[in-house]
Each structure stands twice: as C-alpha cells, then as structure tokens.
Design a protein that fits this description.
The protein has 250 residues and is an alpha/beta fold. The protein is built from 10 helices and 7 strands. The strands form 2 sheets. It has a 5-stranded parallel β-sheet, with helices on both faces. The protein has a two-stranded antiparallel sheet with strand order 4-5. The longest helix has 13 residues. It starts with 9 loop residues before the first helix and ends in a 5-residue tail after the last strand.
Length: 250
C-alpha cells in the first residue's frame, strides 16, 4: 500500500512473505528458520574446511592449528604466485552439489550463504583499500550461461566486507576447452596467456591489494595466471579465495 497512513511495516511484510514462502534449506529444501541457510542435517554433511590449513592454498593439513603459517607439500614444492589463499569447502559430496547447483543449475540463491562463508575467511586477507575481482568467463561462455558464478560470489562478498568490487578487472582473452582430466602441467599450458588486465583499470591497480574470487580451485592454474596478470600490472599483492577446494586424497 502507498501513502504514509497506509504503509505496512517492513517486519510485517517479511512475516507475511515467510508465511507464503517459508524459508527452505538451500541444499535439500527442508524448512529452516531463516532465508539462505542450511538445515542442521545438511550443515553436518557439508565438508567445511577448518582446523590446520595451508596458508597458500587453503587445503586442510594434518595436526593441530599452529600459531605460524604453514604450507602444504605442493605449495612448498611449487609456490603459487599469490600471497595467501583460502577455501570454504572441500569439493566433494554436498559441497560439490552446491557448487554444481550454483554453476549449472541457476541456483543463484546459493551465492548468498556461500559468499558469507567466504567473506568470514577472507576478512583477514583484506582491508579498506582491497579490490575484489572475480575470475572472468570468456564472452562466448558468458552468453551461453548468462551469468558468471564467480562474479555472483565476489559481488556479495564485497558487499559483506565493505570493499571495492571490480567485476571486469580481468579479461578472458581466449576460450579454453574443458580442463577436466588434464594434468597440472597441461592445465597451466592450456591457460597460459588466457587472462589479462582490463586496460581501464591499470592505473587503479598500481600498488593495490587484490582479492581474486573463484568457485573451485583444482590445480590453481587459473588463479595463477590471473595473479601473474595483476602483479605484472604492478599490483602490490594478490590473495585468493574459492568456494571449494579439490584436495588430494592421502
């Protein structure tokens, strides 16, 4: 209703909407207490990463949490170009279903809680001058899909963290075939030269701190190419965060 004498309080509107469209778990659809949440059962089944982690890629490490930053064997053998990295989930089970729903199922509602989980982890990696940017899709893939899932996450994260969001900081120069089944070396070779800095952001990038956002990290090849592009454009430092991390089985 319009007019000062007939305004319905926002809380009453929300109560009415919840009566008509009750909040449901973003994973299984069961009723929950508030919007954009997991139910208790799905929360327990979702492999959140916690405890000791690699400070460079976010993969879980054996043992107890240390006061000092630790690295996994892969990052010690092949240090990534970025400074610090985090991941919210292990890419398996219920977490894989959430990622696939966001990426291929038009489940944009998943981005809201996912970005909140990621923002909590990213807060120590950011400050008021950090630029948050998603890994871009090639324009042909963007037209086919209609959205960039990494941009959905990055935009919501920037809003939660109160930092600047630049959706087109990076440009995908060439379309690449699926990376599924490729080795680490093959992934890096295929992605070489595939990302560059948007020329209109070269000046703001000088001396800036950048947080790159993607949905899944496997070998880290995509994030490595993006990080190198930022550093070559004279960014001061680059950190990365992903919704889910593929972890090697012991």
């Amino acid at each position: 209703l319009h007019g000062a004498d007939h305004m319905i309080p926002k809380q009453q509107v929300q109560t009415l909407l919840h009566a008509i469209f009750p909040p449901r778990c973003v994973s299984c659809g069961e009723l929950v207490a508030s919007d954009f949440e997991l139910c208790g059962a799905c929360w327990r089944e979702t492999p959140f990463i916690g405890g000791a982690i690699c400070d460079r890629c976010g993969v879980p490490l054996p043992g107890q949490v240390s006061e000092h930053a630790e690295c996994c064997d892969d990052c010690m053998e092949n240090p990534p170009p970025w400074q610090r990295g985090r991941a919210a989930l292990l890419y398996q089970g219920a977490a894989r279903s959430l990622v696939m729903g966001l990426k291929h199922g038009d489940r944009h509602d998943i981005a809201r809680p996912a970005a909140r989980w990621m923002a909590t982890l990213a807060e120590p990696l950011t400050n008021e001058t950090t630029l948050i940017a998603p890994i871009p899709l090639h324009w042909t893939r963007f037209l086919k899909r209609g959205f960039n899932q990494s941009a959905l996450l990055a935009e919501r994260m920037a809003r939660d963290l109160g930092t600047d969001y630049i959706p087109d900081l990076l440009i995908r120069e060439k379309a690449t075939a699926s990376l599924d089944g490729l080795s680490r070396e093959e992934r890096f070779e295929m992605l070489s030269g595939s990302l560059s800095i948007n020329p209109k952001f070269r000046d703001p990038l000088q001396g800036a701190s950048v947080l790159l956002v993607d949905d899944v990290m496997t070998s880290g090849a995509t994030l490595s190419v993006a990080t190198k592009a930022c550093l070559e454009a004279n960014a001061d430092q680059v950190n990365v965060i992903v919704l889910a991390r593929v972890a090697k089985h012991p």
